[in-house]
Design a protein that fits this description.
Structural class: alpha+beta
Shape: globular
Helix content: 10-25%
Largest sheet: 6 strands, antiparallel
Strand content: 35-45%
Radius of gyration: 28 Å
Oligomer: single chain
CATH class of the domain at 304-412: Alpha Beta
CATH topology of the domain at 304-412: Double Stranded RNA Binding Domain
Length: 431
């Protein structure tokens, strides 16, 4: 009973506080008008206080709502705009400068075209949805290839409130992953609206288009194999593929590949340069069709150098246990270290074998996780941050990569194993 009374009191307090703020001075409300052709876009920012139940304090919140006016009258939007967002207003408004006459895209989770026809405003649905954030991505804005993928969020600040965002640079705009808008003609082609898989590959995974065909009909997405519906014996060695989807015909196909042969360690490496290196378009009577390039030789393996939160590390994957003595000999040759510089050599089931070396005031780890086929050279995990670590680790990384680029040490690399196979094998071992 006490808890109920406390919650009720807090709720009343919150409502009273918000009401008092809203009815107070204009400091809690900012309104800006932006003219675009025959339209006026009004941005209204409202500041309020809300009670944060986690911290027991009042927190500031800013909501920015947009209204589009024509001849001084607000333009009405379909009910689908209000569905399931919790913020029932226009989140964003974008101009389309490359359209033949003044045209806007506006909405929240659902996006709409706004333009004049016969002197009257038209609100035309591009894609209505109630479960995901809307998104926009030009398919041809970077030398005929996809530009940045942008999700549509409600604004929560008043920066550039008097500026209208523009979608410019391309003709074909991918909207919310299931519609293509021709900016010049305003034609809309919806596809795969039920989000079906293609040959048991879900897509896009991750979000966004990877490539666009020369005939401007096929979008290339990154695909991920649906292992949940597949028995162990039917799992592919590589769970990644490219899904090519013809948005005019509303159909697609998968282009499978061997991650080991393409030296693909993560989905982050599936960018356009990688695509151009390993794939090509073939002309046919049915249009452009994607296929793997025929390479003269398999690329050499190389390592990956990264810095995360001042923690530099160089990773070799997938490697056999035989790579460890080779890499240690290389590091010793590069640094002049001897056995006296090895201050600790330990093994743990979860961390693998860790060899710690001291070099002056600096400490470095060489870690070998044999079960995961990972060898890593890094700053010692507990060493204090020092910019010298990044310089040192990168120097070793660059030198060893130079050797790998010459074809050295390739016999010590293994094969990439899919994450699902790793997990299921681990599950079997525990049983």
């Amino acid at each position: 009973m006490k808890i109920t009374l406390i919650v009720f009191a807090i709720a009343l307090m919150t409502v009273f506080f918000i009401s008092s703020c809203s009815s107070g001075s204009g400091m809690n409300r900012i309104e800006k008008d932006i003219a675009y052709g025959p339209f006026t876009i009004r941005a209204t920012a409202t500041r309020s206080k809300q009670f944060n139940m986690n911290y027991g304090t009042m927190a500031s919140q800013t909501n920015v709502a947009y209204t589009i006016l024509h001849n001084g009258k607000p333009i009405a939007f379909p009910e689908a705009l209000q569905s399931n967002t919790g913020l029932p207003y226009l989140w964003r408004v974008y101009s389309l400068p490359d359209a033949t006459d003044p045209t806007l895209i506006a909405g929240s989770q659902s996006l709409y075209l706004v333009y004049l026809k016969g002197g009257a405003p038209v609100v035309e649905s591009i894609l209505e949805q109630h479960h995901d954030f809307a998104s926009v991505q030009f398919l041809d804005s970077q030398n005929g290839q996809p530009g940045p993928y942008l999700e549509v969020y409600a604004k929560s600040n008043t920066d550039d409130l008097d500026q209208l965002d523009a979608l410019v640079g391309g003709r074909y705009l991918l909207v919310s992953k299931h519609a293509v808008l021709d900016v010049q003609t305003r034609s809309i082609q919806r596809f795969n609206v039920n989000n079906s898989d293609v040959e048991n590959y879900s897509f896009p995974s991750p979000d966004g288009a990877l490539a666009f065909s020369p005939d401007r009909k096929n979008i290339v997405f990154r695909g991920a194999f649906q292992s949940w519906n597949t028995a162990d014996e039917d799992l592919p060695d590589s769970e990644r593929a490219l899904v090519v989807y013809n948005f005019e015909q509303d159909s697609g196909y998968a282009v499978e590949f061997d991650e080991t042969a393409l030296r693909l360690l993560s989905v982050d490496e599936m960018d356009f340069p990688w695509f151009e290196k390993f794939f090509e378009w073939e002309k046919s009577a049915q249009g452009d069709r994607l296929r793997l390039r025929k390479l003269e030789k398999t690329p050499y393996w190389k390592g990956r150098f990264k810095v995360d939160y001042a923690y530099p590390y160089y990773t070799l994957y997938p490697v056999r246990a035989t790579m460890l003595p080779v890499f240690l000999a290389f590091v010793e040759q590069q640094t002049g270290w001897t056995k006296a510089d090895l201050i600790e050599d330990k093994f743990h089931e979860y961390t693998g074998r860790i060899l710690t070396f001291a070099s002056g005031a600096l400490k470095f780890d060489v870690t070998m996780k044999e079960d995961e086929q990972i060898l890593q050279f890094s700053k010692h995990i507990y060493a204090a941050d020092n910019p010298e670590y990044t310089t040192f680790v990168k120097k070793i990384a660059d030198a060893f990569d130079a050797d790998l680029a010459l074809g050295k040490h390739q016999e010590h690399f293994g094969e990439i194993t899919s994450d699902t196979k790793k997990i299921r094998d681990a599950g079997k071992k525990k049983e």
